[in-house]
Structure formats: C-alpha cells, structure tokens
Write a structure and sequence with these properties.
homodimer; 344 residues; alpha/beta; seven-stranded mixed beta sheet; three-stranded antiparallel beta sheet; 10 helices
Chain lengths: 344, 344
Amino acid sequence: VTPYTPGEQPQRRDIIKLNTNENPYPPAPGVLALLKNMDGNLFRKYPDPDATVLVSAIAEFYGVDKNQIFCGVGSDDVLGMSFLTFFNGSKPVLFPDITYSFYDVWAGLFGIPFETPALDSGFHIRKEDYFRENGGIVIANPNAPTGVAMPLSDIREIAEKNRESVIIIDEAYVDFGGETALPLVSEFKNLLVVRTFSKSRSMAGMRIGFAIGDENLISALKRVKYSYNSYTLNMPSILLGAESVKDRKYFEETVGKIVKTRERVKHELREMGFVFGDSMTNFLFVKKPGTDAGKLFRALKDAGIYVRYFDKPVLRDYLRITIGTDEEMNRLLDFFRHAFSGGV
Amino acid sequence: VTPYTPGEQPQRRDIIKLNTNENPYPPAPGVLALLKNMDGNLFRKYPDPDATVLVSAIAEFYGVDKNQIFCGVGSDDVLGMSFLTFFNGSKPVLFPDITYSFYDVWAGLFGIPFETPALDSGFHIRKEDYFRENGGIVIANPNAPTGVAMPLSDIREIAEKNRESVIIIDEAYVDFGGETALPLVSEFKNLLVVRTFSKSRSMAGMRIGFAIGDENLISALKRVKYSYNSYTLNMPSILLGAESVKDRKYFEETVGKIVKTRERVKHELREMGFVFGDSMTNFLFVKKPGTDAGKLFRALKDAGIYVRYFDKPVLRDYLRITIGTDEEMNRLLDFFRHAFSGGV
C-alpha cells in the first residue's frame, strides 16, 4: 500500500498557508466560548460512544433522523470505514481517474478492485462512465483537486442506473457552492452523502466528519465502527462539534466571505492569464500556459506562501490554491504580479 | 461480525460508575490548566499528523526513541490497526479464551484466523499454549477481565519461542502493578507493547493510546495509518496528552491511591466471602460462591452502582468491579453488607 500524502503542516507562524484547504476564519464564537468553559475533570470518563449531542445537532441542522447519521474522526475515517463496510465484492468500484487521492489508497488497503474512468478534457466527470456494472461508486462533488461540480441531475441519473451498489457522494466542499445530494437520500436507499467539519466549519483540528444516508446504510457503518473502536470521537470533538452546528448564521457568513473572495481572485487570476475550471469549492486549481507550475510552486514556498502541487501526469501543470482571507490572497496576487513582470 | 459491547455510559450524575475501569481521579492539573488556555482559533487548521509533541513526551517518559512510538485514538485504534497490519497470514493468531473481548472482534472484522487456548482454573495464561506455530500472539498483561498478571519471565519465554510472528502485549492496566514488557522491546524486534491514557492517566474521554516497539514495527503501523486516516488525533488530544505525560508525580500519586484502595477492598471483600484472583489492575473480578452474580449485578444497578457483568460461560458467576474512590468503594461495600445480611 502506498499511503496518501497529506499537505505540509509547517510550524512557522508567518507562513501563508494555502495548501490544505483549511478555512481562514476561526470556528464559531460559541465553540471558543464552550472551550473556555469545558470541564476537563470529565475527561477521566469515556465519551458517549454514540456522540448523541453531536448527532442530534446535525440531525436538526439537516432535518434528518438521528439514525440516518454516522460520525467519525474526520470524513477520512467515515470514507475509509465506508470502503471497508460496503465495498467487498469482486466487481470493481468506480471513481474518476482524477479525484481525491485517498480513494485508491483505501481500495489498496482493503484489497478492493477498482476502475477509474477518465475525466473529460474540461475536468468534468462523464456520467455515462458510471452506467455499467460495478461494486460501488464514489464521486467527490465538487471534485478535488479540480474544484469542478457535477449537477444534481447527473448524480440523480447515476443513482437511477445503480440501484444495486452503494454510491458515496463525498461532499467535503459542497457548502461553498455545489448542489448537495441530500435530497436524494430518502429516495435512494443506497446513496450515502459524506461531509466534514474541516472546511466550511473551520474545525480541521478537531477531526469530525459524518455521513447521512438511509438508516440501513448507517447501521451497517455503526456495526463496523463498533467492531473496530467503540469510542472514536473524543469529548471535545463531540461537544464543540455540536456547538458549531448550532450557529447557522456564523457558518453562512463565513462561507459567504470565502465565496466572495474566491470570485474576486478568479477574476484577478483570469486577468493575469491563468486558466481554470469554475471552482465551487474553497480552492482554485489553476494553470498558466507557458509557466512551469513546479517552479512557481517552489518560488511561492520560498516566499512563505504554501500552495499544493501534484507532480503527476495531467496535474503537474496546475497549482491548487486554497482561498484564504482577502489579505492572504492579496499577498499571493502581489507575488504573481511581481513574478510575471520578470521578478522571479 | 458481532461488534464489541462497551460498558454503559449513563448520563445520570449520581451514579457510582464502576463498570468501565475509568480512573476516579481527574487528569493532571497541568492538563486542566492547558485546557483553560487553549486557543480554539487554531482548530481551523489540521493537527500535526505525526502528533510530534505527544510522541516526544512519551519518548522522554519511557526513555525510548521517537520512531519507536505509534499513537492512535485510544489503544483500541492502536490494537485494531496492529491486527490489520501484522496479522494477515493463514496461520492462526493466538490469544486466551478469556481476555479482552475485542480481540476476536478485530479478527472477525479483518478475516484473521485465530485460536484461543484456555486459561487454567485459576485464570492464569499457560505459557506452553503459545509454544507452537502461529500467525501472531496477543496477550493482555495483566489480563482482562480477570486482572491476573503474567510474570515477565513468562512473556520472555513466549518471545524467545516466537521469533517469526508479531507478539502484542496489551498493557492497558500494567501501571497498577503488573510487570511491563518494555525492557524486552530492544531485544525482540517482533514485540509490540500497547498502552492507553484511559486508565492510569485519567483521560478515557480524550481517546489516546500508543504502542512502543522496534522502529520497523512502528513504521509498518504508520504506513497503514497513513493509508487510512492521515490525521487521527485531534489538537486537544495531542496537546493535553503531552501535558499529562509531563507530570510524573501526579501520575504516580494517583496510581498509588488506586492501588491502596484496591488492596483495602480486596481485604474487605475476602472477609465477606468473595473469591478472586490477585488483581494487579484498577478492577477486581470477583465471585461469591452461592450468590447469583447476575442478580447481584441488577440489584447494584437498581441502587445506582454500576459494575460490569458478562453473561457468558465461566464469566457469569463473576462481577468486574472498577476501583473508584474510597468513598465510592465504601458505598459498594455497605451495599454488600446490607445485601448479605438479608437486605436484598
């Protein structure tokens, strides 16, 4: 098994960190207040294995039943456990050739056969590639690292043509402008929507992810979870996660700010000659024809601006740039202006 | 797969909770102080995937190298991942018939063949049962739920006779009086010692466990971890866990108090006619000949005193009772005195 390589976590504080799609804004004020008042004496006891207060808060936010929700240690835990739970046949699981690069790692870890239909030249997922026999389907929507979103009507068509296998829609970035597949969950009992607190909720450091689906899918996940680790989410994650979900206003404001910054940066990068798809996420996946992306990546790093670079076929012409604050993005844009006027 | 059944986590505050081997004392004062000063703004970023500050603190405490340490979400995560990493041959993994009841669950989850040699009538592990071909060995020392410890010389003999397979010594309870196998780790490159913060460090609610072994074993575990979830320990676990390890004095004091209470309770229970092995843990596994343990379990529960009862052959004559504070144990002893004088 070749492990997944996460983005760097530099310890220097002066770095502009646009490399792991973290949210530039802090968690909701209620989260910070609860942290200050948290009773550490309680840590001597095990946490609630069902994470009830967190599950209840999520159920209320999304208007679903509590037994339609499964929580894990980040969406990676939820996705990894879903691979282990649902993908154990001999037919190949399908996911795009360019997508979240953990999918093939989990398949490798658990010995799951898989095939990876190619994106089209505009980085779109071709729905027709998923209209054939398979052992499961995984679609990141919007997709990573491209940022390109798939319309809900395409997801619906894929679901209609695949009643027999489990379909996972990884919506890590959906809050920034994609169309969620949550409305399909009651109709398609085999469709699981996976979400994370790491991006739109500014809580990557707390490791919280969840899945919403039919209660039969959720109870299958729970059986596997309780066969691996009874207590996965620790007390602070459960309590602070629930508090985060309660503040819809802050959540919407924060997401709104990031979307606004993103659209401005898109405009400015286009003016500079960058080319990219219409990202619906908190990152952009950009190339500048005639520019060596690897060189640009290293020059940015030397200047204290970390972005993500994938040294792989197709991807190696691109940089993946997280949307930070306006100030951070201005520093990035200034760097580019300077570089392209002959400064690098 | 039949999941493991954890002990109940009642929400009522007035319960005397002696059912999940939690520590009755709070985490170290430094942990509580750091919690109050923790900067929740940092939660927007991913945690350090290597949990460096925690690993460094553990390395210093035990005098081992940092690359000899693997951390996980409780020792369950560390053990489960060890099963997945090391036990994938066709030969059976060996562990006792009466032991931590998660071992056969993990074996079932990952399709690992296993055999379970029987304890002797005094609940001792018979070392000779492990002198034969196998795909791995798992020994909880002291054992659960019996509390009985195995001498280090027996562990050494098992290690000497098994150079080819990975030997896991699960030392969840060793701080309360067992002999650790840590001195064997440098000599036996195939021996892994697994520990938890949930018992002797009063941090069950934080979910921290770790393994110490040869760096090749540790790097194999890391490869699997990074193929499942890059970021398992969240920021509070890493920071508060490290803080806990730094306070050796509080740790030793707390453990000392529990051992003292345990020895007193042993004496009093013996006087009442209870029979049990010489527990070296923070719990006792007791029976009272002529008394229905299941009935006693339910009567205790009705009185607000939760202990653990396993309704299985051999075990169903016993209660597993966690050592709480002196006050809590007095309430338990009073209940027994009352019950056995005809009160129940």
